[in-house]
Amino acid sequence: MPDYVIEPPRPVGLPVKGSEALFPVRRVYCIGRNYAAHSIEMGDDPDRDPPFFFQKNPDNLDPSGAFAYPGQSDNVHYEAEMAVLLKQGGTDIPVDKALDHVFGYALALDMTRRDLQEAAKQKGRPWEVGKAFERSAPIGPILPVAEVGHPAKGRLVLTVNGETKQEGDLNQMIWKVPEMIACLSEYFTLAPGDVILSGTPAGVGPVARGDVMELTIEGLGRLRIPVV
Ligand code: MN
Question: Contact, 137 vs 56, CB < 8 A?
Fold first, then answer.
């Protein structure tokens, strides 16, 4: 080990169901507009334009079980998503080999300061202030492929205070998990520890302190996240 001039940051580690060992996070990629109904609600045409990606920071992933309402925003939205966690990387990964790179899956929320994101979009500025803020991606325990396989269909529901807000099915993704891995690997060198948030169905909306968000994906369980 070399010496460092300051204490090196610790890797971000996420809990894995059935294991004492953590999953180390390298990068976090998010896919935009991956369910047709959500594209329409955001004012886009839901065709098969190539997918687009943005990033969050590894330490934005938050397994603590709560969402801390951030500053600098009065309009913070939930986006319920399935996270895909990679155990292998590469470039130009073929679609038919892509799933071999997956370690597991998890329930996650792509929390968004929508007011800041919209302002950035209007000015053609980057999205980081809207997307990559502290604790902006609550995530549940990782479920290894050995336990849950590769879910390609399954109902996804997000409730706030017991009221259903988002409803969809994994089979409604415009770009399926193998396709998004293959596409990402054409633009970036993927590596073990990379996390992909796979997009959200329609029904995104705001939360306030005191709300309780609950995400379920058929076959992947439930994630309960109070807004604190
Ligand atoms: Mn999203």
Answer: yes
Domain residue limits, the chain = 13-152+169-207
Tokens of 151: 């879910």
Confirm if 196 and 116 have CB atoms less than 8 A apart.
no
Displacement of CA 203 from its chain's centroid (Å): 16
The Å distance, Cα 199 to ligand 1 centre, comes to: 5
- Cα-to-centroid distance, 112 and ligand 1 (Å): 8
Q: What is the pTM of this model?
A: 0.96
Distance (Å) from CA 53 to ligand 1 centroid: 10
The yes/no answer on whether domain 13-152+169-207 falls in CATH 3.90.850.10 is yes
pLDDT tens-digit series, residues 176-195? 999 999 999 999 999 999 99
Please, what's the b/e burial string for 167-183 (b: 16 or more CB within 10 A of its CB; e: otherwise)? ebbbebbbbbbbbbbbb
- The β-bridge partners of 226 are 212
The C-alpha atoms of residue 29 and residue 39 are separated, in whole angstroms, by 18
